[in-house]
Amino acid sequence: MRVWRSLSLLAALPLLAATGPSLVPEVSQRDIEIQYSFSGAKLLLFGAIVAPESAGQGQSDIVVVVKAPPRSVLVREKQKWLGIWVNADSSRFLSVPGFFAVASSRPVDKIVDRKTAAIYELGLDSLQLSPAGEQEIELQRRFDTGLSDLMRRQGLFSEDGNRVEIREGALYRADISIPATVPTGIYTAETFLIRNRKVVAAATRTITVRKTGFERFVAQSARNLPFIYGLAATLLALGLGWLAGIVFRRI
Amino acid sequence: MTIYLPIAELAVNPLLIVLLGAMVGLLSGMFGVGGGFLTTPLLIFFGVPPSIAAASSATQVTGASVSGMLGHWRRGGVDTQMGTILIVGGLFGALAGAGVFRLLQLWGQADTVIDVLYVILLSTIGTMMARDALASMRARKGAAVAPPRRRSHHPLVAALPLRWRFYKSGLYISPLAPGILGFITGMLTVILGVGGGFVMVPAMIYLLGMPSRVVVGTSLLQILFVTAGATMIHAMTTHAVDIVLAGLLLIGGVTGAQFGAKLANRFPPDILRLILATIVLLVAIRLAFGLGWQPDEIYTVELG
User: Fold this and answer.
1) Which chain B residue's Cα is nearest to A233?
2) Which residue of A has its CA nearest to B66?
């Protein structure tokens, strides 16, 4: 269905093209459903670049940014103290997305200048984590690197400068892998068309990541009906223990 | 094959968790311990966050202690009067433990304190058990027969006011003593996810002077109620009980416990105790080294 719809959009392209470059983006999944067997997902972002007079205007580049809603987090740093590793310094960040992936057709620093990258948050270096409170620059930088390193190793932050494929200057596609540990929420998938170091077109799609079925029911019950949830867990334990006792006495 | 844990928010191999439950269950059936002291650290090795590991392992201990308790009950090995006082103390301890846990989390030292407490507890208990087991093995060989220890309570216990008669245990002591003991194990249950049997049983024998025929049954009764209470407290305060994780652990745990109980009859008790002591000491050593090694991740992130 969706594929046909995007194809029909592609057919209508020449009509739209008069006003200047624009993007027709699409994502393979508008909903990512976390179920019992969820072990991550592969998100395909694709679309068309609508720019009729593109010839002779320099290379077109595409940057795709997928971002989870930002959250406030506390980062702790372990240090060796009396021979054991304990949490020592800590730092609070007000807007850390639980997932942040940047894919581009060429490394971001080759496509845009630092300022543009910072404005549109293109790349891990440009991500604004909003540290709270006043701290020394050096300490802040250490925590910044530590946090983004950790998130990167967990597959929650990523940046890949060769992940977007552009065909004939008109069609692009990128796949982004989403690990099993992603937080739920409404994600944004932003696509930027960049030409001559400038963002000439941008478009956003949203993706909903949520728990469904039994997982959703469990997570919601744990939050909204804690007493009944606890009781259910206790009764499950008592029931299984008792059952095993009976079954094995027969054997 | 993987299964997604809705509260821990990670995907695990369910067979691995069932197997872990079964292994711990086997030990709990063989040695009459809940096995929480093994479940919590092993779950943490798997990447389950410590609070969720502790909460879900408390739930598993409830299941593991049911059939054992019923068995002792039928044989008249449960002192309900003593048990009630231990439970009341335990529930208050669990509430206090939840408060302490929250403070430790705010301070950022929950994980370190949990690890250090484990190392202290396990190395102490492991050494005590190993010494006991070796002594009784030597005695069995007839090398030196230790004079039988006179059963009596510790002078500290005798000093407590307000004495009650505990007919089934044949004791005349202040209910404050078992109350305090219950309180301490209740705190351990919430913070460490252990039933506390490995603290309570020696304390019942050496401090309270209870006769061994009611010790294990009564301690299982207390563990049953207090771990159930700890599950409720975790569910209501930390929201850290993962019912899927607990269910998987239980499936392995309750079956393992039954096999363990059958195996226990085939081995001499002092060898069993020596094996358990070795396992306990190994876990303690692994945890102690873990504290000193540079951790894989220097930075940790928590929400809020």
Assistant:
1) B243
2) A241
